[in-house]
Write a structure and sequence with these properties.
By secondary structure, the chain is of the alpha/beta class. It has one domain: Rossmann fold (3-Layer(aba) Sandwich). The protein is built from 10 helices and 15 strands. The strands form 5 sheets. Strands 3-2-1-4-5-7-12 form a 7-stranded parallel beta sheet, sandwiched between helices. Strands 6-15 form a two-stranded parallel sheet. Helix 1 crosses helix 5, helix 2 packs parallel to helix 3 (132-145) and helix 7 (248-255) packs across helix 8 (257-263). The two termini are 33 Å apart.
Amino acid sequence: MHYLVTGGTGFIGAALIEALREKGHAMTVLTRQALPDRSDCRYVNDLDEIERGKRFDGVINLAGASLAGARWSERYKRELIDSRVDTTRGLVELLKRLDHTPPVLLSGSAIGYYGHHGDELLAEDSEVTPGFAQHLCQQWEAAALQAESLGVRVCLLRLGVVLDSGGGALVDMARPFALGIANWLGDGRQWLSWVHRQDVVAAMSFLLEHPTLSGPFNVTAPEPVTSRGFCEAMKRHRRTVLTMPVPAAAMRLLVGEMADELLLNGQRVLPAALAAAGFEFAFPTLDEALADIYG
């Protein structure tokens, strides 16, 4: 198989590329970096570099500027949207000009799609609450769904907080614990719908291999935790000597709007569609995930 991957050099994409390589697949990867090609991987900086006669067995779209990459100024919020929506629209335009239309598109999204719902359990068909993250995800998904008119099977990956060593959100989340300080954010009652990176890659492979599956899929472990619950789990895997919660006001001062959108509020999300399709998580609980990550 030969797959086209955007965002293939990122935290999730790099793990996906390695997994596909181990299965003997080849990749074409869209990246802003100047990287030398490998025998099983071609790197391009622009989708226009791809010949119309090229045949792909699937497309995985993971491109997008980091949500935590900078303070959310109006300019950076525009970059967050454009880096996702414009790339996705560009992919659909590529699919239109290819002689051989790929059968499937897996396109990134996030559980921010639902907005804030407090303790409410959320499945793929839940209602949404407006907000910036919800607006971003909705536009992102709408751009990807345009591929359906070409006969492409589209799966929308509503990703939770992806955990693993070597990068991602856990770098910042674990930093106080590495210093012996256990903490949670705000009142600690907000939900964290997390997922191990290995399960993200496994879910993407599962969706590629099951041609009857389409639509939105919550890619989150089946047991979300609160911020306090995350703190307690981390304490079981990292030695701490002090518990020091971070006040909500301090978070708002430090990171502005991002605090309320991503950190002080959350979503209690269940992977209902994946479960119904028969997918099994290797790391269904946070303790199992942290035990793997920290050895």
